[in-house]
Each structure stands twice: as structure tokens, then as C-alpha cells.
Amino acid sequence: MTELGNNLAILLVRELETFEREVDLFGDDERIWTTAPGCPNSAANSALHVAGNLRHFVGAVLGRTGYVRDRDREFGRRSGSRSEVKAELRAAIDDVAAILPGLADAVLAGDFPEPVSGHRLRTDRFLMHLCAHAAYHLGQADYVRRAVTGDGRSSGPVPLSALRADGAP
User: Fold this and answer.
1) This prediction's pTM
2) Quick check: helix, strand or coil at residue 104?
3) Average pLDDT over every residue of 74-103
4) Could you confirm whether domain 3-154 is CATH 1.20.1050.80?
């Protein structure tokens, strides 16, 4: 187990679990697909995008899980249950937790196995980018939910307790 791989997994799992709580706060299966004025994506689309992104780059590319991404569907889907969206988030959690802690330091310090948008990137830097990307879309989903539902409750994002080395609350 590498320290960096483990730390990246902890951060990404924290974001994905917060996304699950965000999905629950919608209260019904229809509003999760609603967009707010000026926001082109629903919270469900953002959740599916983050899950698909991680299942592809971490699961399929680094872990060779066989997952085949359908990015157009992540943004094009317009209905489904909250439990279906959460199942995608949970699958991403499983991939991240199973794969990242086991990556060797040499893999993390080397080039990501495939170009990303035409760029060759170091694996560790790209994985840090994926953490920021997940947090960015989580924040978007939170604001869309608040605008769509009028509910200002917090989903308890980014608890620092999730970062404790001993795993204690």
C-alpha cells in the first residue's frame, strides 16, 4: 500500500460518500434531474459524470476492471431513481477503494497510461486533479439542490474527521 494512493482514495471516497448524502437530500426521484436557472446540469448528471469519470480513469485504466464509459449518457440522461444514481456512486467508491491504495510509487510517479484530452500527465498529478474535479461537481450539485428544493440543509460535506489517520470519528 502506498501512502499517496491511500490518501487519494480517502479523499475521493469522502467526496463520493458526500455525493450520496447530497442525492438523499433531494427527497424524491424527480427533482434530482431538475436543473436550476443558469445551471445546465442536474445534480444527478453531475453525480453520474463523477462516477463515470472515476470508474473509467481509476477503474478501467488503472485497475483494468473492464468498465466502459458512456460520457454522453452521463450528461444526457434525464430520469431514474436516486438509488440508481447512488449505485453508480457506490461502484466508483468500490473501484477507488480497491485500486488506488495498491498502486506502486513508480506507477504514481510515471505517466498516466493513456493521454487525457491529448495530454500526457503524471499519474499522481492527474489523480489529484480527479479529487478536485469530484469536489467541484459536488459543490455544483449542492447548489443545484438548494436552488431546486429551497432546502438549505447541508449534506455535511468534506468532514475533516474522514481524513484522520486512525479512521476514528
Assistant:
1) 0.93
2) coil
3) 97
4) no
